[in-house]
Design a protein that fits this description.
The protein is of the alpha/beta class and 284 residues long. The chain folds into two domains: 151 residues, D-Maltodextrin-Binding Protein, domain 2, CATH 3.40.190; 98 residues, 3-Layer(aba) Sandwich (D-Maltodextrin-Binding Protein, domain 2), CATH 3.40.190. It is 39% helix and 22% strand. Strands 7, 8, 9, 10, 11 and 12 form a six-stranded mixed sheet that branches. The radius of gyration is 22 Å and the shape is globular.
Length: 284
């Protein structure tokens, strides 16, 4: 009788595992990377200066350097040299590529939101930004000046929601109509240049990157109206892989490598100067 009960329980457990993948042993990513020696990193490709193609058609930027260093250090943790395969992602694909297994991590301007955390996991915050509005220089002085004006934002992003909420809070009766959604950052900037919109709103460092293309023509208006803590997007329920990424980020901060990369792209001697305002979380 006991044997029958044991066999029945065993098959029931097997059936549950087969029918409910979420209850399987967590996290194949670390083991896969260890075996294959390759990390597929999702990166933006038109986000200046985070990740973009320069005049020499080289894929460069802050996120590119961060991802490269994280992968190198994970390789050190594993005791082997890892190859990083760069994969193009955008605002619509950076999460779906993670959930479908097409990439192993996403270093792509991703604000860590509770809503997103229901689908994927995140590393500790590796970059601190906030949202502002970019406009023609000297034309606007405050957020209130944009009431009734058209403002560009990227479709399906937290920036789109944030600017709409700001306009509503300021009393714009047609806030939803006045936020014009575009597919990507270049399209937003082009709309601003052509006068189709009066402002473009997203994370300030992205705006700084595009404004630097035409020095003296554009400026950021008003204070930050949101907090945008960036995390590296990771596959859900893979604690070994998440720890490896977190340890790499913290070690970069401790030995000064992080700030070298940061100052390369956002330091006072760059066109994208953005003072560091927070410290990276580190664990004893």
């Amino acid at each position: 009788m006991k044997a029958r009960l044991w066999k029945g329980g065993m098959w029931a457990a097997v059936l549950v595992v087969l029918l409910v993948p979420g209850l399987c042993i967590a996290g194949p990513t670390y083991e896969k990377v260890l075996k294959e020696g390759v990390v597929r990193a999702g990166l933006m490709y038109n986000s200046i200066p985070a990740a973009y193609f320069n005049d020499k058609n080289e894929w460069v930027g802050f996120d590119v350097d961060i991802a490269t260093e994280v992968v190198r250090r994970i390789g050190q943790q594993m005791g082997k040299e890892l190859k990083m395969e760069k994969v193009k992602v955008n605002n619509k694909t950076r999460i779906s590529f993670l959930t479908s297994g097409r990439i192993d991590l996403s270093t792509a301007n991703m604000t860590h939101k509770r809503e997103r955390d229901q689908t994927i996991d995140f590393s500790i915050t590796y970059f601190f930004d906030g949202q502002k509005i970019l406009a023609k220089k000297g034309k606007y002085k405050s957020h209130k000046d944009f009431i009734g004006k058209k403002i560009a934002s990227m479709q399906g992003t937290t920036s789109e929601k944030n600017i709409m909420n700001l306009l509503k809070k300021l009393g714009d009766p047609e806030a939803e109509k006045n936020v014009i959604s575009y597919q990507d950052e270049p399209s937003c900037f082009l709309a601003l240049k052509q006068g189709k919109v009066e402002g473009w709103s997203t994370d300030s460092t992205i705006l700084l990157g595009y404004a630097a293309k035409e020095p003296g023509t554009y400026e950021l208006v008003g204070d930050f109206f949101s907090d945008e803590p960036y995390g590296i997007g990771l596959p859900e329920n893979d604690s070994d892989w998440r720890d490896a990424v977190n340890f790499a980020i913290q070690d970069m901060w401790r030995d000064g490598t992080y700030m070298k990369i940061y100052n390369k792209w956002y330091g006072p001697d760059t066109p994208y100067y953005f003072p560091m305002t927070e410290k990276i979380e580190t664990w004893p």
